[in-house]
Amino acid sequence: MDRNTAFLLSAGNRSLTNTTCSRDNVLKTVVFPILYSFLFLVGIILNAVAAWVFLRIPSRSHFIIYLKNIVVADIIMTFTFPFKVLSDSNMASIGLRIFVCRVSSVLFYLTMYISILFFGLISIDRCRKTLKPFRGTNAARLTRRKILSGVIWGFLLVLCLPNVILTSKTPKSPYFKCSDLKTKAGLYWHEVVNHVCQVIFWGNLATVIVCYTLITKELYKSYSRTKSHNTGGTICRAPSRTTTNRPHQAKRKMNANVFLVLAVFFVCFVPFHFARVPYTISQTRGIFDCKLKLFFFQLKESTLFLSSLNSLLDPLIYFFLCKSFRTTLFKTLRLPDGTCSWLTGRGSDTDTGSSPLRDSTACT
After folding, report:
1. Are 202 and 216 in contact (CB under 8 A)?
2. Which of 240, 284, 307, 348 has its CA 20 to 30 A from that of 201?
């Protein structure tokens, strides 16, 4: 058998393999590139506006510091989408696909877990603010939060850097996947990082659930006390139907706002973290057949898209949970005070009262 014949047979075998167990299906090469293109276009606009607004807000609270870090993470994540679009749609060169495996994908996961960590810190801060509303802050506490933010970025960068360094193999054919570029140590480190990230996610998810449960209980107690006080103070005059309904409407909107962070977690991150463990095992260990590997890959890509939606949903969280963000945005757009109060559940954003409903969501 001559060399040309052997090459043709090898190419035919590769073609057959990619036909029976191919990742280049319509879902990966057409559907997801279109969806990620939409995410990039909308996400870059929303996050650019968010960054523009936060540049005009001083870092006078823990909450603002955490939100600014999330904005930076979301912008970096959004800029990884075009590389994924080109790679998945088979329009990228081999060099660009290698860049996606070594750098772009690593940045995507880095920013995802940075967002998760800062949402955990935000939950703790909101819980503290609700349970102890009169405890203020000072320059020393703000400095410590800024140092903590730097430590988080530094820790995750150090954790992810070996994934860049150890993804150093030269692809043996155009039909390669990212795990083919990893050295033996790279495959091992990839699995270690996956387990660390699982701990980060589930720990922060538990934190978010506990903190927002405490917040909800405290706000409900405050609402009950306010309702009882108002009822006791209206002996000579029966309350009107409109007056009676207002507290119930405000309470419903308050509950929706409180659970917005939980909703983002469950929609964006929980499905992916259920799917990622078997997918990583299928990458690093040869214990699954071709069909199962393809199934885990498609499941991972589908849930990964849900995680990418985080870059679009975070600006909504800024709007609903941060009064300073809304105020600065409305001033910049020259909109009247109280705009969208029917969405936020507040009569007017200029109201400076100390209602627990407002205190729990102000950027203080």
Report:
1. no
2. 284
Which CATH superfamily, name and number, covers 24-225+246-359?
A: Rhodopsin 7-helix transmembrane proteins (1.20.1070.10)
pLDDT tens digits in sequence order for the chain, 364 residues long: 444 444 333 333 433 344 445 566 788 888 899 999 999 999 999 999 999 999 999 988 898 999 999 999 999 999 999 999 999 888 888 899 999 999 999 999 999 999 999 989 988 988 888 888 767 777 888 999 999 999 999 999 999 999 999 998 888 888 888 888 999 999 899 889 988 998 999 999 899 889 888 888 887 787 677 666 666 555 444 455 544 455 555 555 555 566 787 788 888 888 998 888 788 777 667 677 788 888 888 898 899 999 999 999 998 888 888 888 888 888 888 777 666 665 565 544 433 333 344 444 456 6
Of 12, 64, 4, 73, the residue nearest 43 (C-alpha): 73
Q: Tell me the two tokens of residue 107.
A: 């940045």
How many CA atoms are closer than 13 Å to the CA of 32, on its beta-carbon side?
28
Query: How far apart (Å, rounded) are the C-alpha atoms in residues 123 and 119?
Result: 6
- The three-state secondary structure class of 201 is helix
Return the closest-CA partner of residue 320 out of 248, 245, 262, 270.
262
Q: Residue 4 burial by CB count (10 A; 0-12/13-18/19+): exposed, middle or buried?
A: exposed
Q: How far apart are CA 239 and CA 221, in angstroms?
A: 22
CA angle 317, 323, 326 (to 5 degrees): 75
Cα–Cα distance, 44 to 202 (Å, whole number): 28
Q: What secondary structure does DSSP assign to 14-67, as a single string?
A: HHHHHHHS-S-SHIIIIIHHHHHHHHHHHHHHHHHHHHHHHTTS---SHHHHHH
d(CA 78, CA 108): 8
**pTM greater than 0.85 (yes/no):** no
**Would you give the distance in Å from CA 116 to the centre of its chain?**
6
